[in-house]
Amino acid sequence: MCKLQLRLLKLLLLIVTTLLGQRLVKCDVKQSNSCVWYGICDRVKEYNSVKIKNCAYDGPPKKLDSNGVFALNEWCSHLREDDDDVYTCCDNEQLYALNENIKQASNLLNRCPACMKNFAKHICDYICSPRHGEFINVLKKKQSISKPNKEYIDEIDLFVTEDYLNGTYDSCKNVLMPSTGQKVMDMMCGGFPASKCSPMRWFQHMGDVNVAQIPFQINYIPQKSLMTSDNKFKPMNPKIIPCNESFNNDPPCSCVDCISSCPIAQEVKKNSENFKILNYDGYIFIIMLIFFIGSLMFTVFANRKVPSKEMNHIKNKNFELSMSEQYAQKVEKFLQEIFTNWGKFCATHPLKVIFISLLLVACFAYGTRFSQVTVDPIELWASSTSQSRIQKDFFDSKFDPFYRVEQVIITAKGYQDIIHNTSNGVINFGPAFNKEFLLKVLEIQQSIENIDNGVLKDICFAPLRSANLPKDEYEVTDCLVQSIWGYFQNRKKEITDPKRNNRKDKNNFTVNYLDTLYNCFQNPFDTTCFATYKGPIDPAVALGGFNENNDTMPKNPKYERASSVILTFLLNNYNDDLKVKAAKEWEEKFVKLMQNYTRNENNSMIDIAFISERSIEDELDRGSKSDISTIIMSYLIMFVYIAVALGHVNGLSRLMIDSKITLGVGGVVIVLASVAASSGFFGYCGVSATLIIFEVVPFLVLAVGVDNIFILVQTHQRESREISETNAEHIGRILGKVGPSILLTSLSECTCFFLGALTDMPAVKAFALYAGMALLFDFLLQISCFVSLLALDTARQNENRWDIFCIIRGPKKSAQIQGNNESVLYKFFKFFYVPLLMKKPVRIAVIIVFFGWLCSSIAVISKVEVGLDQELSMPKDSFVYKYFQHLKKYLSIGPPVYFILKGDLNMSNTQIQNMICGGINCNFDSLSTQIYLASQVPGNTYIARPASSWLDDYFDWSQLQTCCKQQDSTKEFCPHSEEFDCHTCNIVKNEFNRPVDSNFSYFINFFLQDNPDEDCAKGGHAAYSKAVEILKNNKIGASYFMSYHTILKTSQDYYEALRSAREISQNITKTMRSKLQEIGQPDNVEVFPYSVFYVFYEQYLTMYPDTIRSLGISLLAIFIVTFLLMGFDFRLSSVVTLTIAMIVINIGGLMYFWNISLNAVSLVNLVMAVGISVEFCSHLVHSFRVSTKHTHLERAEDSLIKMGSSIFSGITLTKFGGIFILGFAQSQIFQVFYFRMYLGIVLYGAAHGLVFLPVLLTFIGGRRKLNDENIEDPVETPLKDMNEIAIDESK
């Protein structure tokens, strides 16, 4: 019992001690329910705002009347206690001002109920709480002006807990401003962007007296505990509502506004580690292994003994032919007869054939009058049926084409950095902020604005200009001009006025224009920073060179480090050419102004680059014309060579007789005629031409046509005319020998190009069609017109007449009977090159070297870059070329991307709204939410910002009573700033606080016409006037949600951004269709992305597959034609196709090593390479096939001797001079894609056709398929005996 009493006594002492301790603590704290102010003493005007000064009051809180209680309930209902009487430290007037200030903040924060509640609770507590004395310490008072017997509060310390600061900030830090896709903290954190904002910085801004809405200086003093260290104050610590939690009847904040409400998208680390084997590149290691194993196996194979079966076949001359061999023999004989008779006919009636040929060419060429040359880049590279083209046309038709952009990049070259000391530390400004430089920028800007007496005002994009404003009231100041001078409203005195630039802050630091700029960089949405068009200037657009690390996703850009200033003028764009005419005329004058300025302004301190919307098309046209002289010179060199090289002069005395200048010119004219006929043919058909056609097709036809000409003429020169033969019979016999080979190559090439026209890319399709038809005309003219010319030239030579000057005869003693004439090049092949190449060690080495070459190309071909850098499309002397260089170096913002929503959607349906919006009550996988989540991982998605959402802003706009107004009499739209004859709209809300169905459709037009300002930041006119398609009865059609890509520098960045945007859109579409099916609504909805560059870069998404398909179709066509015309000879057809494939693959390797990217231009060249490669291969293989020699070694030697010199002189040497000249072209496309690739095509083709192919035939060419009795061999050579053959086989 005693023990129990003792324990009770100890417990009682403990309670007493505790209560006494609490009392002792409380005695140091100010009396609860005490105030530090009550009522309003003064309204002091400071700068552009009116400051409300609260009267100092040291006493108990006072009772509110019914009006005060009603006002309190709007935002501060938590201050009401259970009693009916409400006591506060604020009167009705203070409550009205409080509600007005919170209402302005709600424009931005109301999207997130928890944030809004926490923010409002903070304002309510420090203004009206009956317990001021617990957490407010008055530091400064001033005498009231209107109430002399009273003082007003001028500065206080406000004690708050750190938990409260952090919790309130965390609930608000991710709230978005849908119209811009930025966070509200970008506008509410003073001089700091959202990325640099912190709880303390946010509250310091809310306590800064220099902010218009802040009545007096409030110093927030954060505390870690619930009591200050001196025990005098109890920090304010109201309960915080996390943004991902619901309270009362309000739902939690959405994922878009509260990162805690959604799954955090994780940044996927890109695998930078390459495939490795023994620390070597895995692919190269495997290729090397294949090379060594393959080389070893081939060496063993090549050194095998000749099988006895093969020797028995050689000895047996009476072998039986298989059915395919009999077919091949019949086809070859049939073709020889056809060509022989046709050649004889043309040689017999040369003038008639030439006349008819020219007449037909003239008829076809006349069609060039109807030809149209396409220079529009979109028409060149984007098929009208391509996805990006269809989507672009849809966007343009619904929302008008994207603005016409005029831009000037002005770089400070000779200026130094500026060191500026401020209260926040030293700020190092870049050279672009030098006063002299900025004044020069303003001078340039004003010169542009004054072009043609300020006509810019009529054509510019003015987002805040009223649609009903008369045109004669338009002003240039209405135009959206992104310029750093917008921060000063284009007022020069803001920089030059000494008074404005020598002010002192409270720490005695100089305040000048640099501080204004810095503050505007941090918060461009501060209304004091708005440009003359009454909207913000984005520093990422107006400045350049600040992204010193070239980061594509700068999190904390240092705009103050800029080295250049960028002027951007946006002009309205339309589908109607008549409406755009004025803009194009202005652009022409703009370009002339800037060209004159850069030409005449000898200022080494600045560097200017500029562009207009029309400049690319203009410069492409100019660049093509400027290179005409280079192209003509290239062709002239080739023409001269052809004319000279065709002749075979037997002595100086016969120089003018044996020359073939006229014949060569005739052959060149035939090439040009075939191109003209092809152009005319497609002119009749209405197929537009491109500049590529006129630059590339003549080169191609010249390569193919000249080779055939050389083969025909040189075979004619080597073949003796028999004594009984007439000139016509002789020519007919020659054509019979080479005609099948010419038919094989021509038919292969035509088929190759016509099938190549199956591609969707307009430029490649047009090239393939024009090239295929030109080659067809060239073939027909060669076997008719040129054969007739050859007959006339042979008759002239036989009559000993001079070339060109036919009326002059040579002396009789110089006459020479036509015999077996062999050129120097022919003798070189016959007596030196072929014997050397056919030595067994050389042949083995050739195969191994070419196999290694192929392996090396395969190893790197997948690394060839896809795309076309913009500057490569321009001549180096072009101002656009300079602009592209500056753009890549200085511009640090990504292009806008629009997510277009189309389909039959009832937008007034709440369930459908939830599939789209991003605010409270919206689906967690809505359109806005998915784009928002994508923006959280920009390294993967290339989406830099959340998308603007007209739907979310419309909801917010409809909830603010001060935003929507309509005329009293007509009920039509009235700007919210208008007071006369206007009243607040009566918008009926549903349970989600959104307009009901009928109101939703009716007031959407009001929202889209309402300009945003401080009183109603959600007005939709500026951001969404073109974003929503309004149908009849105010129904909504298509609409878009705008975001931005990350900074895109390379072609890969651009097409990967497109790929990512499509993946996001496809996922949104799939989600919405699924949801629509669940609620029984039509699911014909689609979301797709659009940006201005998509139409150009879409081709690169599938460039590799398209290239493989195009080249594969071409190779298949060549194989099929060769297979049919060579009598179903699978082996030789495969050899031709394999060799051509090797040429193309090795050219792909060349593209990697010579930095040639894969794009439409290089694809055209690769397709052309296939066609030219046929000339290097098919003639030789056909000659090999019809050779009457016995072993494949002898047949390879024979075919190379007969065709090698013609191929070398007809293709290889012909092209060298012309290709060399292309290296001096101004256009970089010519230098990179024509000079380099043409050189590679000719050299690689010659190497494979004259070195690798004949060697390959010695190993896998197969046995002789045709008897020499059936097929006539062009040149008779004595057969070796069997012993010599066996020796040859063992070499």
Automatic annotation (TrEMBL):
PANTHER family, A to Z: NPC INTRACELLULAR CHOLESTEROL TRANSPORTER 1
Alphabetical keyword list: Cholesterol metabolism, Disulfide bond, Glycoprotein, Lipid metabolism, Lipid transport, Membrane, Signal, Steroid metabolism, Sterol metabolism, Transmembrane, Transmembrane helix, Transport
Family: Belongs to the patched family.
Molecular function, one GO term: cholesterol binding
Cell location: Endomembrane system
Taxonomic source organism: Polypedilum vanderplanki (Sleeping chironomid midge)
UniProt superkingdom: Eukaryota
Membrane topology: Multi-pass membrane protein
Chain segments annotated as transmembrane: 282-302, 351-368, 628-649, 661-684, 690-713, 768-792, 842-861, 1108-1128, 1135-1154, 1160-1182, 1203-1225, 1237-1260
One GO location term (cellular component): endomembrane system
Descriptive protein name: SSD domain-containing protein
PROSITE patterns named among the record's database cross-references: SSD
Signal sequence extent: 1-21
UniProt xrefs under NCBIfam families: 2A060601
Pfam families: NPC1_MLD, NPC1_N, Sterol-sensing
Gene3D superfamilies noted in UniProt: Multidrug efflux transporter AcrB transmembrane domain
InterPro entries: HMGCR/SNAP/NPC1-like_SSD (IPR053958), NPC1-like (IPR004765), NPC1_MLD (IPR053956), NPC1_N (IPR032190), SSD (IPR000731)
Reaction catalyzed: cholesterol(in) = cholesterol(out)
Annotated GO biological process: cholesterol homeostasis; cholesterol metabolic process; cholesterol transport; intestinal cholesterol absorption
Major site of localization recorded for this protein: membrane
Residue span, SSD domain: 627-792
Transport keyword on record: yes
Lineage of origin: Eukaryota, Metazoa, Ecdysozoa, Arthropoda, Hexapoda
